Structure formats: C-alpha cells, structure tokens
Amino acid sequence: MGARVREACRTMPDPPPLSIFDHVYAEPNPMTAILRAEREQYAAYLDSFEEAQGAGR
Amino acid sequence: MTTLTLARALNEGLRKALENDPKVLIMGEDVGKLGGVFRITDGLQKDFGEARVIDTPLAESGIVGTAIGLALRGYRPVCEIQFDGFVFPAVDQIVSQLAKMRYRSRGQISLPVVIRIPCGGGIGAVEHHSESPEVLFAHTAGLRVVACADPADAFAMIQQSISSDDPVIFFEPKRRYWDKGEVDRADGVAQALPFDRAKVVLAGTDVTVLCYGPLVRTCLEAALAAREDGRSIEVVDLRSLSPLDMDTISASVRKTGRCVVAHEAPVYAGLGAEIAARVTEQCFYHLEAPVLRVGGFATPYPPSRLEDHYLPDLDRILDAVDRTFGY
User: What are the tens digits of pLDDT across the range B21-75?
Assistant: First the structure.
C-alpha cells in the first residue's frame, strides 16, 4: 500500500499555477476581491512570458 | 577570515556565546544529541554538556515558558524552534509574557531570551515548514525581530542577539543555510555592524530594493541582471525588522527616488506595508513613483509544487522594478 501511495504522489500532475488562489475562503468577502486582484495580476505576469503561454494554467 | 556556510557560522556564533558567558543555555527539540534538525547546534552538547544544551519535549509553549523562567533567574536561554510554523504554539508565551514582562514590571525585569526560527520556503516543503511569520512578532511591542542573510551576519548577529537584554526573535533563512561566505571569527562581533542597523549590500542609483533574509541573495542576483540592462539597483538588507532602521532606508530612497520592498511573507498587511507608509511619510518629495511591494500572495503557503509561483524570484522582483519606472 505504501508503495502505491508513494507512486501515486510522484505521478500526480503539477497543479495549475493559478490554483494557488483557490479555496482560501468559503464565502465571498472583501478579501476575495484582493485575492482576485492578485490572481489577475499574476495571470498577466505569467502571460508576459512566452513559455507560460502553453503552461495550461 | 574563514569561509563558512551560514549554518556553520551560526554554530560557531553559538559556540562563542556559550564560551563567553556561562549563563547562556541552548534548548529545543533535538538540539542536543542530534544537533538540531538542520544541525545548527551540532557538537555543542558534546562540548558543553547536557545542562547547557538541553533536549526538550516536543512542546514549543513549554520551551519558551521554561526559557522565561530561566531568564527570570539570570540565564540567557537560546531556544530553537524547528520550523517557522511550529512557533505558533509558543505565541502565547512570546506575546503575553516574554514581550511584556519588562513593561509590566516597570523596567525591573528584563528577559534576555533569543528564539531562533528557521524561516521561509524554497526547500520543497509545505505549510508549517515554509512560512514567514515575522510580521506577527514585529507587531508585538517589546520584541526585537532580526533576520540574518549571510554567514558573516549570522555569526555576529546571533552573538549580538544573545548579548541583548531584550527578547529577540531571530529568523534564519533555511534555504540559505548552505550558502558560503567569509567570516571573521577573531573579532567578528567587535567590528560588526550593530544588529539593529540595515546595510547597503549593493550600491546603486536608480531604485532601492529593500529585502531581508532569504531574498537578499535573490535581490542581489536581480540587481546584477538589471545592470546588464543599464539599470542600477541599490540593494538594502534590512537585517532588523523591528525596529526598522529608517535612517538607512530613507537615505537610500532619497538618493534613488524609487523603492521596492521584497519579502516572502504575504504582501497583504506585511512588513512592506509599514515600510511603504514610512517611506512615503519621510521621503515623499523625493519619490518618483509609489513604493511597490513584491511578496507572497494572500493565501496559505501552497503545496511544494506551487511554491516557485508563490515565492518572489528574480523575474518578479525585476517586474516590480520595471513597474516603478512606469510612473
């Protein structure tokens, strides 16, 4: 079982970068606006790199 | 001068402190026989004994509470917290007792306790092992909060912190433990910059980048990259996070006219906000652009596969520098 769990962890795909902003709060609140702004700013930043275009965020 | 890693420089600084003052004690989880999870206290119990280098139970509140009692009886305890996120069980002792005893006793009781905390991310770990809680302590009156960034400062600042009669929260950039640098072991402390002063680590003329701990090296690398584009960045290592050395900060910003603050901790309500406010108050007529901040997001520390996105790197720092020139 341990071997199966380790293998499953190792082969998990990398999470999309912008998922970093998900699941912080259960309900919308003023902080979610700040998170949304940070998310949009970081998305624009990633888009400024050609390499990031195909990263599948 | 000797070349040491930052980890070894801390070890040598602790050794000096133990040699120079019999009241200095080291205590923490696995600091004795094992030498600490990062081996910062390696060999110290063997040389100074179990009464001065003390393995404690896994109980951070108990470690700090015991240290407070020892300090009340004249000792100078140095507590190791294994990882940044493990300090939270000790916050009650630190904030409610350690920080306030001097004020509460009208100056009659000082608590010279040092709490060493490996901080920050970049080692492939997760929450509790990669956090940057410095602002919680910087917000607490009665504590000094410092962060070393290179071996020379690690060696000197740990000794200066132990010599201080105030409680000191001492942050160590864990992903820089293995960085090497020159250390003057002979008179490193006597000649060293006071631990509450910031330091210009790279002079520049176009923009000031303020940083500390693990991001000092990153900002230096960014400054060298920017130089190739003809942009001159002055990098200032804050070293002391509370109190802030506003004289050094303001002098740099008045010279360059632009300021970026970089830290791993979340930007939201972070130390950069306090610095930005003070720089704006003190340097308003010298600023060519608003003070910009670059740091972690307003989220918990992410899983390790996302930490490269969370942590400010060379490109994100240069992106902030570029934005200051957009005004």
Answer: 999 999 999 999 999 999 999 999 999 999 999 999 999 999 999 999 999 999 9
Dihedral angle computed from the Cα positions of residues B220, B199, B111 and B53, in that order, rounded to the nearest 10 degrees: 50
Domains in chain B: boundaries: 2-183, 199-324
Quick check: B199 and B161 in contact, CB under 8 A? no
- B129 counts as catalytic: yes
Choose among B267, B306, B315: nearest Cβ to A20: B306
Which residues numbered 221-280 in B keep a CB inside 8 Å of some CB on A?
Answer: 267-268
Contacts of A10 in chain B (CB under 8 A): none
Read off the DSSP letter of residue B91: H
- Identity of the residue in A15, A31, A48 whose CB atom sits nearest the CB atom of B305: A15
Report yes or no on whether pTM surpasses 0.90: yes
Distance of CA B268 to the CA centre of its chain: 19
Q: Which residue, B134, B176, B146, B173, is CA-closest to B272?
A: B134
Interface test with A, best of B267, B297, B305, B311 (most A CBs within 10 A): B297
Per CATH, B2-183 and B199-324 having the same topology is answered yes
CA dihedral B32, B38, B39, B45 (to 10 degrees): -20
Q: Name the DSSP letter for residue A5.
A: H
- Both tokens of residue B113? 């306790």
Measured at the alpha carbon of residue B37, what is the angle toward residues B242 and B10, in degrees to the nearest 5? 50
Q: Cβ(B210)–Cβ(B236) under 8 Å?
A: yes
Identity of the residue numbered B23: K
- Residue B327 CB: number of other CB atoms within 10 A? 10
Give me the half-sphere count of Cα atoms (radius 13 Å) on the Cβ side of residue B94. 29
- What confidence tens digit (pLDDT) does each residue in A6-50 have? 999 889 999 999 999 999 999 988 888 999 999 999 999 999 986
Closest-CA distance of chain B to residue A46, Å = 10
Domain covering B199-324, topology: Rossmann fold (3.40.50)
| Homologous superfamily of domain range B2-183 | Thiamin diphosphate (ThDP)-binding fold, Pyr/PP domains (3.40.50.970)
Give me the residue spans of the domains in chain A.
15-54
